[in-house]
Amino acid sequence: MASLLFNFFKRAIIVPVIITAIILGAVYMIVPKYINEGQARPVTVNNQIDLSQYSVKEYNSFKQLKAGDYVGAISCDNIDLGKTAVLYLSENDNGVYVDSPSSEPWNGGSVVIIGNDINRQFGKFYNSKNGDKIELEFYSRDTYTYKIQKKVVGVTKKDISRYLTDECLVLAVPYNDFSNLGGSFFYTLYIAGKA
Question: 3-state class of 122 per DSSP?
């Protein structure tokens, strides 16, 4: 009878407790590693961009560029953005690109940059504040410095042009419009004027 009671106790309590402890231990050891990898942000700021991976050419006007051509680099020291490559009209999942209503700042124009890589560098703009300096370094021209003046939330793509003024920089970070099944986006805008 004692043997039968011990076997019952072993199967009903000891084995499930040991198996649960092993599973919890594995979860405790393995899962945080995957969570940290998914949320990882670069600790060191990369000040160099490998231009060999982009289509690079001299230009005086954005209209001389084709979709995917390298425009320049954007950086903001206050949010550890590093230097992020900016392409021309290249809407892909990870790209940061100059959008079509943009015109060259050396001609007094305004630049709209959309950052589709919201889970990577461009997503860090959520931590920016008014007064943060942004540098936009163009491949064919000088570096332009801007200061963030305001943040606007919930703007549609067609309404971005309403926020353009002369010699401004508009950074647009997209997020899904879940009310529309067509895959459209709303944008959070960071509007910056010349510093």
Answer: helix
Q: Are 158 and 99 in contact (CB under 8 A)?
A: no
Q: How far is 122 from 75, CA to CA, in rounded Å?
A: 10
Q: What span, in angstroms and rounded, lies between the C-alpha atoms of 34 and 165?
A: 44
Q: What is the pLDDT along the chain (195 residues), one digit of tens a residue?
A: 677 777 777 778 888 889 998 998 888 777 766 554 444 444 334 457 788 888 888 888 888 888 888 999 888 878 777 788 888 887 665 678 888 778 899 988 899 988 875 556 677 788 888 999 999 999 877 899 999 999 998 888 888 888 888 889 998 888 766 665 566 778 888 999 998
Phi, psi for residue 52 in degrees, rounded to 5: -65, -20
What is the distance of C-alpha 113 from the center of its chain? Answer: 12
Q: List residues bridging with 173 in a β-sheet.
A: 188
Give the H/E segment covering residue 74. strand 70-75
